[in-house]
Design brief:
CATH topology of the largest domain: paralog of FGE (formylglycine-generating enzyme)
Number of domains: 2
Strand content: 15-25%
CATH class of the largest domain: Alpha Beta
Structural class: alpha+beta
CATH architecture of the largest domain: Alpha-Beta Complex
Distance between the termini: 61 Å
Number of helices: 12
Shape: globular
Radius of gyration: 30 Å
């Protein structure tokens, strides 16, 4: 534990031995496990094994995936540096959200939760450590952070506030140990959490409305029974005037007798909550997305514009169909209403659904296939690019120069905004497909590979290798125009939701 105390005491601010000391401006992540001593006291060996597994399976791969470098692990923490503040914050969010999933089934006292602080500063770099006030500030920010939270400095905030789509809560200026000037600190509020809170409020409101509805129904039932009792009393009072020779008991009218399923009595109908429970997904007809049939063919996949898009290689595509638009909020919420998709999306029905993980997209595809009895699925990466190009080989499907109003991105023209435009707001490509570039990032079937070296040439999905990340295509309304090129590709963590991520659906013949 002595090593950890030195790490916390600010020794990273002490200069290393004199000599040539390379310096660099870097985004620094400092992570530390909350209540580590208590966890070790309760189960020393088990906690040690779990921490090492988290470092191996989550922290180190996430840092590498976001183009950072792990400087060191410290028993109950880690330090990493990044050239990009955006990637540093994205990595921090991914780590925290993955830990939420890992901890979900554990009792609270057994959960391993990290506090994470992120700062931008000039640091001295040595082979196995870094030094400087930039590291010290990141350490102090981490010490202020709550378990499971990401706190960032004002310097990081200024770099990412228009680039990473999430919420930020200003915690004001804080005086931190061994640092002369106060540090402005922000708490990062990932959109997934914000959606969760919104959903919780919505569910509470629905529960309140349901309670009021049942109260009104109960009042109506009580009133009906009282009126019925009063009517029966009047009928009994009038009974002597009726001849005892009258027919024994009135028969139901012939029309009612012929009805196979009797209607419930008013008292039963009044006590039945409305609306009735939704049918099971297997019998609920799904609203199928509008599809475009794509004839097969061959094309040159990739480009020389980015290392991830090389080498350019020839691919043959079989006929298939693909969604004319990305899946919308309205279409997604039908799956959510059938209890087959894991959250209710917010926004207008004709807007593309966002904040979807690759796993979420697969849930929708599986539900749609089951409900429609058709082989719906995600498109694979080769199919997506073939469809996005629309038979062209230019930089964009419309040519080599950016043209306003052709796609939804940050610098694509007037229609670019703080949220994605409704589907179909931009011109279709030659295949009749909308938003195949801009709008929302779109998941495809394939696992993420950094280059096309070894990629299949038969148009099938590339599902070999490490599939903890999957491929995203299209770019989003938050990205600049280079992301809307048909050849652009990126990867992201399979089970993590991100506010600009959506998808479209494909259909085998």
């Amino acid at each position: 534990m002595g090593e950890i105390r030195n790490f916390r005491s600010g020794n990273h601010g002490d200069p290393p031995p004199q000599g040539s000391m390379p310096r660099r401006l870097a985004a620094i992540i400092v992570g530390d496990i909350a209540s580590y001593s208590r966890l070790m006291q309760a189960d020393e060996e088990g906690t040690h094994v779990r921490v090492k597994r988290i470092e191996r399976d989550l922290i180190e791969p996430s840092i590498i995936e976001h183009h950072g470098s792990l400087v060191k692990t410290t028993g109950d923490g880690f330090i990493a540096i990044f050239d990009s503040p955006v990637e540093a914050v994205r990595c921090s969010i991914v780590i925290q959200q993955n830990l939420i999933g890992r901890n979900a089934s554990l009792p609270r006292e057994s959960r391993i939760e990290y506090r994470i602080g992120v700062n931008l500063g000039d640091v001295i770099v040595e082979p196995d450590d870094i030094y400087g006030d930039g590291v010290n500030i990141a350490t102090r920010i981490e010490g202020i952070a709550e378990p499971g939270q990401v706190y960032i400095s004002g310097a990081i905030y200024e770099q990412i506030k228009h680039k990473v789509v999430c919420g930020y809560e200003s915690l004001g200026d804080r005086k931190v140990k061994n640092i002369t000037d106060p540090v402005r600190i922000y708490r990062v509020l990932p959109d997934a959490d914000a959606v969760g809170r919104t959903r919780g409020r919505r569910e509470n409101t629905l529960i309140l409305l349901l309670g009021l509805t049942l109260l009104v129904i109960a009042g109506g039932v009580l009133w009906y029974l009282l009126m019925q009792q009063a009517g029966n009393t009047v009928e009994r009072a009038a009974a002597p005037a009726v001849s005892p020779v009258a027919s024994p008991s009135p028969q139901p009218p012939p029309r009612e007798t012929a009805t196979q399923t009797p209607q419930p009595s008013p008292s039963v109908a009044a006590s039945t909550p409305s609306p009735a429970p939704s049918p099971s997904p297997s019998v609920t007809p799904a609203r199928e997305p509008e599809m475009i049939t794509i004839r097969g063919g061959s094309f040159a996949m990739g480009s020389n514009d980015d290392p991830t898009e090389r080498p350019i290689h020839q691919v043959t595509i079989k006929p298939f169909s693909i969604g004319k638009y990305p899946v919308t909020v309205g279409e997604w919420n039908e799956c959510a209403a059938a209890k087959a998709c894991s959250f209710v999306a917010t926004g207008k029905d004709d807007a593309p659904v966002t904040n979807v993980s690759w796993t979420d997209a697969q849930q929708y595809a599986a539900w749609l296939a089951q409900a429609s009895k058709k082989p719906y699925r995600l498109p694979n990466e080769a199919e997506w690019e073939y469809a996005a190009r629309g038979g062209t080989q230019t930089k964009y499907w419309w040519g080599d120069k950016l043209q306003p109003g052709m796609a939804g991105c940050k610098d694509c023209g007037d229609l670019a905004a703080e949220q994605p435009a409704k589907v179909g707001s931009f011109k279709p490509n030659p295949f009749g497909l909308h938003d195949m570039g801009g709008g929302v990032d779109q998941w495809v079937e394939d696992c993420w590979h950094r280059t096309y070296q070894g990629a299949p040439g038969d148009g099938s999905a590339w599902n070999s290798g490490d599939c903890t990340s999957h491929v995203l295509r299209s770019g989003s309304w938050k990205n600049d125009s280079r992301y809307v090129r048909p050849s652009n590709r990126d990867g992201y963590d399979t089970n993590v939701r991100y506010p600009t991520h959506g998808f479209r659906i494909a259909l085998s013949p």
